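This is your field. Pick holes in the following sequence-structure pair:
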Amino acid sequence: MRKALAIGATAAVVAVVGGTAAFVLTQGPEDQFAECRTSAVAGGAGAIGGPFELLNSRAEVVTDTDVITKPSLLYFGYTFCPDVCPFDTVRNADAVDILTERGYDIQPVFISIDPERDTPEVVGEFAQNIHPDMIGLTGSAEQVKAASQAYRTYYKKNESDDPEWYLVDHSTFSYLVTPEDGFLDFYRRELSPEQMADGIQCFLDAKS
């Protein structure tokens, strides 16, 4: 069983916005991935995803092209998250392992939306405890905001009397991205590892 760290966990349950936005699907008649898509995306797949510049666990500046070198599964969360982020990232890691067993190579990525507490070292430790291949990323407030806006995610810091102990509301989608095609689909947290793996495999098979 995986070791999922929930650093600074409290008894409070994090408030999560998981898909409150209304998306409208617009895909062309020749969409090679049409049978694989489970999400509806406003403006088509091109409306989500794009360039970003963040810091890896060694505090090195990396861009989206440095990180997304193969099919990747991106998740935006934070390491102090008491329950949702560990659950979701472990689910993603399990899906990656299922796909590995099937002969597919997927890169799991964790992007922090809490740059105040999530230093490169903290993010790196969190990611490694979820999956040995998971890349942990953080950055300045501006860098994190830009990456979040590129993927149209939501996050909002909740004020607290103790500046070290606060929760962050955030969306909980996981994003499938490839270097060649960019964003392909997002997956809701209700899916099991097997369901997620099946969905991702559909895209990878359609590419081959």
Summary: The helical segments are 64-67, 84-101, 120-130, 141-150, 193-207. The CA atoms of residues 89 and 130 lie 7 Å apart. Residues 1-28 have pLDDT under 50 and may be disordered. The chain is about 30% helix and 20% strand.
